[in-house]
Amino acid sequence: MTIKVLVADDHELLRDTLELYFQQSDGVDADFVGDYPSALEKMQGETEYDLVLLDYSMRGMNGLEGLKAALDVAGSNRVALMSGIAPRDVAAEALNLGAAGFVPKTLSAKSLLSAVRFMAEGERYAPIDFLMGEDQTSLANPLAEKLLSREVQVLRRLRAGMSNKEIARELGVTEPTVKLYLKSLFRKINVNNRTQAALFAQENGLF
Questions:
Q1: Cβ–Cβ contacts within 10 Å for residue 192, how many?
Q2: What is the per-residue pLDDT for 172?
Q3: How far apart are CA 22 and CA 27, in angstroms?
Q4: What CA–CA distance (Å, rounded) separates 57 from 196?
Q5: Which of 37, 61, 82, 100 is the most buried (most CB within 10 A)?
């Protein structure tokens, strides 16, 4: 059975990565939009979605207020939150408000797809280790051992859809420095661009 999914996120890289992965997966038909108003418009259109996945911090969302408004117009559409920055209490409150689930952007692509299928079938999803407060930033993955800690930090932010400028500002370095880290990172994991790097991180469960 094919499930119909709407993904709303204002990071183009993340949308491209998810779109590529969903296209490679059987039984998933996904639409993508880049802001909250577009998501609401889609939800109120003719298409019925098995799941609507909203980024917590995208343009126009306003956090949990956006979730409440989306739930009000959802009809038969199930609505879940996705975030790379929201704390545990936000995830818990989202579930209390009636969200179908909370999906950390740190999930591998395989786990994210499993979560999407799980919620689309009527279940509620939230990683127990996230809600219980276990460290989500550690990397217990041998593929990460060949990366410098700074390269890991850059890849984590690239995976979350941040631009070079945003990464530089958050890490307190210059944009050219970020580009140097990316060049080294791409060489080490044998990819050619940001989208491939983000997909690599997802598929190998690096975060």
A1: 9
A2: 86
A3: 9
A4: 24
A5: 100
Burial class of residue 163 (count of CB atoms within 10 Å of its CB; 0-12, 13-18, 19+) = middle
Write 22-26 long-range contacts (CB < 8 A, 24+). 22/113, 25/113
Q: How many beta carbons lie within 10 A of that of residue 100, not counting itself?
A: 28
Show the domains of the chain with their CATH numbers: 3-131 (3.40.50.2300), 142-203 (1.10.10.10)
Each residue's pLDDT tens digit, 96-138: 999 999 998 877 777 888 889 989 988 888 876 555 554 444 4
Q: Catalogue the long-range contacts made by 118-123 (C-beta closer than 8 Å, 24 or more residues apart).
A: 119/51, 119/78, 119/80, 120/3, 120/5, 120/50, 120/51, 120/78, 121/3, 121/50, 122/78
Residue 134 CB coordination number (10 Å): 10
Q: What rounded mean pLDDT belongs to the chain?
A: 85
Cβ burial, residue 110 (10 Å; 0-12/13-18/19+) = middle
The 3-state secondary structure of 28-89, one letter per residue? EEEEEECCHHHHHHHHCCCCCCCEEEEECCCCCCCCHHHHHHHHHHCCCCCEEEEECCCCHH
187 exposed, middle or buried (CB, 10 Å; 0-12, 13-18, 19+)?
exposed
Predicted structure pTM score: 0.66
In this prediction, residue 71 carries a pLDDT of 95
